[in-house]
Design brief:
32 strands; globular; Immunoglobulin-like; mainly beta; homodimer; six-stranded mixed sheet
């Protein structure tokens, strides 16, 4: 695999001579100084608090009294240390650093039951990892549905000192997108695990940087909505964060979606957006009027403030892919020096029709890697096909992959695989395909499926192809969007297609300039083809990033080269069978 | 100390000769058979579920799909094994066996951060303990406010095979009392830890065996209430459990209170109750028209069905000690063969006025041990006085004992004391008294207090006197009832008094026939004097049994002879510093 990150460290162990290694070691301190790499320490406490994200007060999960959590800002090459104390009364907690590949630190990936034990109430865990590559990232809880409860924040990595982005901008804004329910996450979880099944429903609000308006509309005066015009002074927790710009400049908007459910579309009145980055990877720039963004994705877009400078403009965010029951989130692009409280002259941009999948597919298929980006290996060593189905298990509604619904074991895989604890999870490898006769266009003939905790084991440096195959859900004529997110890696998105993936689709795959991503969507009744190199020793979740879907079993676990993983901190292993093993081992 | 349990095992190690010991060893198997002692195994799973305890659906914490949890029924001398699996998604869990002294098994007491690590999500813990003495007990969660969430059930211990209770009855009923809020416990907890402080308020309903009626009244037709008459078929989750009796019989009512807050009063129309047991100890029988019962207490009362057999009668349960905002819980005493649906001819008994403390004190002071019960040692080795105050810490509202508000450390004391881990908690012993100048009749002059995790350490077999001293809360003219519950022991209740305990009160203490209890109330502006022998190696919580008060720091920790504790199971220690210690120790 061609390294995608330009880091100095990884190639060393591969092919350099001893002489080069010694020189490198001598130079290392100087490189360190010249690159300005820093270790950045953060001390965080997670706890519940009352908050009004959408002007209605509810309980949210906050960090250091903030919602969303504090933004981490670092430079490529920096080391981040987060000393995380769990101040929750009864719950465990972990934090996943979404998009950070955790090269060499798989135990810091922050996935409960996979990379570490949940941090117990009252205890402190030390996340320590390198942000090796500039980009727009975020972090979030990865235990139960704590992300839905509000446990998320931004992680922005700038280029290293002396480096430059391959595009110019005069200023930037950071927009972390999310969706919000008034029913507590605890109750949502119970509903999902009840008979009869109780779906969480559509979100009450969409939030931009944790701010939305439920009981009023910023743009009521333009529409025939029943909502009243918001009367906000600006200092409320739910007041929109205004984007103050100056005319004739270029701004970078960093946009990341931490939604629990909603696929989103973002548009700015009168302004085109040039898409330049996705999930920490540079793209071949392309212009759009509106941006589709699925949960788990991030983008950077450039906007030029070349419109009438006597006006302000709407930024609007709406729901895609599900019949929307949620009003758009809005904020204002304010052309200074005019007042931010001057209303735009036109109504906010309207989101494309929720089921206009052609629009979505057109957007996804416009995404290519920036010229000169790493290319995928020409062939794969192993290909697995993952059929996405909705199923029933003992009367419970679940999602399953190749007929197995993921049930995470109490002992995290990283430790149990490393120490060969064979009782910790299903030792049988899960299926790599599904029966050829399966009709993806119809509800399953036999909806019953089973739970499992098996792992797909890959030899280190295996080139893996994953074909994500969508299908009909339990109800007739329903096939949903699922954004799949891979931990510990980026993958090349080789292509999207309709119906069942077959040999003839092979030829349509893009090996020339496929984008590197960590999240890729499967469209209803379609497939998505991914390729990645299993070159990062560890155990990695690969799952639908829709929070309730993951909770219902929609994920798989990949492992590679775990015996190469060194020095897992004990604090990551102090539960279940690894705790017992360490006791015996001493 | 005179053993209170009549067990065969404990005296052996004290004073018997070797010869007697050998004889005893030979006889042991036969004693075992003749006593019929059994090991009773239970396999439980704790999870949230939808339930309608008061006809309104909410989320409750259930065991094996039941609310309240399954009733454990055993005989004195039996061993109980509960294999408890935590099926909660993000929360830990423990279960405390309220009233069981855990002689020799302090690690099975089920107090998170004190006797064991919380059982992590997905994991199983094995409680194994002996129920050495007949009585009416219950069990409940002891982490965060999980008891309030519905994690409780009954534990009834009958006399050993061939033994007899010191009173006769023809049948029995078991009534587990609780209170219920519509606001989730998660949100209640956040409110208690918020600035400004948000009190949980009065319960929406009182429950008898998990059953109450919020939106209707069983007795609407008798009163000028605005509630409508309940229309229940009897198979609803909220339908009252009818007490079916036959005329001219004697019935034992076992009554235990697991309320989060409410002090209760129970009465049965036209029927006197003879109180015969409290907290697993026999009482000198006395008759009452109504029974006060505080959270953490249990009683057995005998009723004789000597009333007009052509009628049914109300059993009514109301709130005491706080201005009530909760309707009474009701059920029917049904004289068979007449129909249970025949309404009593009179309205339900009315609870005494909430602040008629004279009534409450008269009841408490009528409780004496059954003649022949173990008597307290004549003098104490050490006396500590515990001042109960409401305080402020960094703007948060707390309860404190001698100006220290209990903040439990992440590493359970039992392990950290046993292994000498001095960083695990405050090594300084908490204060044993309060300044003489403190005016218990007025709000604190300086309301600020501190949190602490210190432990009162007692030498094994020390006779300890505890003077619980009530005081004025933060507001003028407010002093609340607090039922204090001791783990691992019973104590003798030597007396109750008004104002500040002083030398002159000493003479009024009852050393002749004080009742043995595990829970004793302090009345507003009063004191309660207790004596117990610290003869049970372990670490034991002593706390106000009002769930939000404990959550706000109203408790202390007692430890005695921890170095005598043998073979703490690793599963009780696999967190915090004990996990680290065991890793190193191997």
């Amino acid at each position: 695999m061609v390294p995608t990150d330009g880091s100095m460290v990884r190639p060393i162990s591969r092919g350099l001579t001893l002489r080069a290694f010694i020189i490198w070691c001598i130079l290392l301190p100087f490189i360190g100084i010249s690159s300005g790499a820093k270790t950045r320490h953060f001390k965080w406490e997670v706890e519940y608090m009352y908050w009004s994200p959408d002007c209605i007060e509810h309980v949210v999960m906050g960090i250091n009294g903030q919602f969303p959590g504090p933004t981490i800002r670092a430079k490529a090459g920096d080391t981040i240390v987060v000393e995380l104390t769990n101040k929750l009364s009864t719950e465990g907690v972990v934090i996943h650093w979404h998009g950070i590949r955790q090269l060499g630190t798989p135990w810091a990936d922050g996935t409960a039951f996979i990379s570490q034990c949940a941090i117990n109430s009252g205890e402190t865990f030390h996340y320590r990892f390198k942000v090796d590559r500039a980009g727009t990232y975020f972090y979030h809880g990865h235990l139960g549905m704590q992300r839905s409860a509000g446990l998320y924040g931004s992680l922005i990595v700038d280029v290293a000192e002396g480096e430059k982005e391959p595009f110019h901008y005069d200023g930037e804004f950071n927009l972390l997108l999310s969706d919000w329910w008034h029913k507590s996450v605890h109750e949502q979880e119970v509903g999902l695990s009840s008979i009869p099944f109780r779906w969480i429903g559509e979100p009450q609000s969409l939030l931009i940087n944790g701010r939305g308006q439920y009981n009023c509309s910023l743009a009521a005066q333009y529409s025939n909505t029943t909502s009243s015009q918001c009367k906000l002074r600006g200092n409320e927790q739910c007041a929109p964060q205004i984007l103050h710009v100056r005319p004739n400049k270029t701004y970078r908007l960093r946009v990341a979606s931490s939604t629990a459910l909603a696929s989103l579309n973002l548009a700015i009145g009168n302004h085109k957006m040039v898409v330049v980055e996705a999930d920490g990877n540079y793209l071949q720039p392309f212009a759009v009027n509106d941006l589709d963004i699925y949960s788990g994705e991030s983008y950077s877009v450039l906007i030029t403030t070349d419109q009438d400078p006597s006006k302000n403009y709407w930024l609007s965010l709406g729901v895609r892919g599900r019949l929307p029951a949620t009003p758009p989130a809005l904020t204002i692009l304010n052309y200074q020096p005019i007042s931010a409280s001057k209303f735009p002259t036109s109504p906010p941009p309207v989101t494309p029709r929720w089921n206009d999948y052609d629009h979505s597919k057109k957007f996804s298929k416009s995404i290519f890697a920036l010229m000169g980006s790493p290319k995928p290996p020409k062939s794969y060593d192993r290909r697995i096909t993952l059929l996405n189905t909705q199923n029933k298990i003992d009367g419970f509604t679940k999602w399953a992959i190749n007929n197995v619904s993921l049930a995470l074991p109490p002992t995290p895989y990283l430790g149990s695989i490393k120490y060969g604890l064979r009782n910790a999870f299903d030792q049988k490898s899960p299926p790599e395909n599904f029966p050829n006769s399966y009709d993806v266009m119809k509800p399953p003939i036999n909806p019953n499926s089973t739970t499992g905790s098996g792992v797909y084991m890959f030899g280190l440096n295996t080139t893996v192809d994953v074909i994500l195959q969508n299908a009909n859900a339990l109800s007739d004529n329903v096939s949903e969007i699922h954004p799949w997110h891979l931990h510990g890696h980026d993958f090349w998105v080789l292509g999207y297609g309709e119906g069942k993936f077959s040999a003839k689709d092979e030829k349509k795959l893009n090996f020339k300039n496929p984008p590197l991503r960590n999240t890729a969507v499967i469209f209803p009744y379609g497939w998505t083809a991914l390729r990645y190199v299993a070159d990062n020793p560890g155990v990695w979740a690969f799952h639908c990033h829709i929070e309730p879907h993951l909770h219902m079993g929609m994920g798989v676990v990949f492992a590679e080269g775990v015996h190469h993983v060194k020095s897992i901190p004990n604090e990551a292993l102090s539960c279940g069978l690894t705790a017992k093993f360490l006791n015996k081992k001493g």
